[in-house]
Amino acid sequence: MSDVLDRFERDGYAVFREVIDPELVREAAGHVEWLQHRHPDLRPEQLGHTLLRDDPFWLRLISDDRLLDIAETFVGPDIALFASHYISKPPYSGQPVLWHQDAAFWPLEPMRVVTLWLAVDHSTPQNGCVRLIPGSHRGGIEAMRANTAVNNVLGEEIAVEIDESAAVDMVLAPGDVEVHHPNIVHGSNANASPRRRCGLTIRYIPTSTRITADEQPYPSAFHLRGDPGVNTYQPWPTFDPARHYRFAGAKVGRG
User: Fold this and answer.
1) Max CA-CA distance within the chain?
2) Does the bond joining 125 to the residue before it have cis omega, within 30 degrees of 0?
3) What pTM was estimated for this model as a whole?
4) How many CA atoms does the CB half-sphere of 186 hold within 13 Å?
5) Neighbours of 103 (CB within 10 A)
């Protein structure tokens, strides 16, 4: 993994192919549809971290050992979840994510965190894949400014001009994982294609990173591996077929 870490230090991102098997990816796709039916008031780009506190499948997915093994490469053996978010861009109307740096938003001290972006669908330039500016993580954290001129996921953008000719498209197949640094400048275009583009962001922290938000435990703070460290965590929900998405391996009375 030393070559992966070297490239990550240089470029600020890495890609891992065929991490998650097709069966689990299909369950994730069904989970997104279930969430959209359950929360019709939310845009599909906004299926965010507060929803996972009482969602056994979501936790089963983000705690999969194949994902945790990748996260461990970047943050070490003591791992917690900070946040997770489906960004599902519907055909023809999926909103863009304007250029930004994740570290500008997050209540973490220190800012030691890694994002795993799990492709639920094929992700291409045509349907609004993630775009990154390689090496931009080595600069500082720039200010953000409001942008409501176009409907977009964040309602904000980075307050400096970005050379889009330097951007790299993250073309991914279902089950692939892209990993990126919290400081890297990234975004994505609108989905003007007939194909949905859905990805699950998963923000893993070493348990030595403190979540400094006022609400404690943080809604999506879950201990996943190793020593629990400095945070307080949510209890794992118990699966209830009357309330929860049904998935392979789910057992009544167990998380």
Assistant:
1) 52
2) no
3) 0.96
4) 25
5) 17
